[in-house]
Amino acid sequence: MSEITRVLKTFIGYLKRPDLYPELGRKIIKNTVNRGNAFKGKEKTNSWAAGKAISQEEAVLKLFGLETGTFRTDYAEFLKTAEQREKECPVKMGGAGALELIYYACEFANAKHVVETGVAYGWSSLASLLSLTKRDGTLYSSDMPYLAQDGDQYVGCIVPQNLKSNWKLFRFADKESLPKIFAENPVFDVLHYDSDKSYNGRMWAYDELYKHLKKGGVFISDDIGDNSAYQDFCEKNSIETTVVEYEGKYIGVFVK
Fold first, then answer.
1. Please, which residues bridge with residue 139 across strands?
2. What Rg do the C-alpha atoms of the chain give, in angstroms?
3. Which long-range CB contacts under 8 A does 88-93 form with residues at least 24 apart?
4. Closest by CA position to 192, among listed 124, 120, 94
5. What is the pLDDT of residues 64-101, one digit of tens each?
6. Distance CA 246, CA 94 (A)
7. Whether pLDDT at 37 is above 60
8. Average pLDDT score, the chain
């Protein structure tokens, strides 16, 4: 698909969804007036993150006092099925991330309420749900429709049917989804951010999510090297964060 075709399909998709008009307006501003916003402070933060980074296994042991060794064997069948479903999906979306970090964050927090932004195939959703279902907990997810790819039906496609009763999926931009989520449940044990990558988008969401994270809850943000939003947020709030290096990218995580 050419870039022009993709942009046109996205725009037409927005026009068909009046409930997404607020996000359309924000995207137009982000891609015109605020084009440099996505990479604000990128060089500074990558240098900072590189100096702090540890492995996923080290982070799970350091923060949660848990070993990651059994996750892949305990859930081998779930993961094998999920990988096959991803291969069969005709729409390309974001792949699996640091699943053990998410799963063991939920285990550590004895989580019953988790919020995530960004779903795609549903890898992070699966990691959370594998823990949450032990306690009959609920995962609240925010994810925009894949308007350019006609991919709406495939969002969360790797999540097995038997886990979906513990999952609530909100199909709007974060600025519309999160208030709806917080109205249903105001306090969360774990949060995982993996949506709007812009500096302004992150700073808004980080502030909102942090307010609704319980004391002792776990805050996780993917791709913190895109810009300095995560570093600036932590410094503004005097948060001592751990940085995880995973497949060439950086993840931020801390216990509130």
1. 114, 167
2. 18
3. 89/121, 89/154, 89/157, 90/154, 91/146, 91/149, 91/150, 91/151, 91/154, 92/149, 93/120, 93/121, 93/146, 93/151, 93/154, 93/155
4. 124
5. 999 998 999 999 999 999 999 999 998 888 788 899 99
6. 15
7. yes
8. 91
Output b/e per residue, 189-228; b: 16+ Cβ within 10 A.
bbbbbbbbbbbbbbbbbbeebeebbbeebbbbbbbbbbbb
Report yes or no: 12 and 149 within 8 Å, Cβ to Cβ: no
The three state secondary structure string of the chain is: CCHHHHHHHHHHHHHCCHHHHHHHHHHHHHCCCCHHHHHCCHHHHHHHHHHHCECHHHHHHHHHCCCCCCHHHHCHHHHHHHHHHHHHCCCCCCCCCCHHHHHHHHHHCCCCEEEEECCCCCHHHHHHHHHHHHHCCEEEEECCCCCCCCCHHHCCCCCCHHHHHHEEEECCCHHHHHHHHHHHCCCEEEEEECCCCCHHHHHHHHHHHHHCEEEEEEEEECCHHHCCHHHHHHHHCCCCCEEEEECCEEEEEEEC
* Matching residue, tokens 């308007």: 147
Task: Tell me the per-residue pLDDT of 183-213, one tens digit each, with 9 for 90 and over.
Answer: 999 999 999 999 988 999 999 999 999 999 9
Tokens standing for 131?
């823990």
Polymer length in residues for the chain: 256
> Which residue shows structure tokens 């812009």?
198
CA distance linking residue 121 with residue 116, whole number of Å: 13
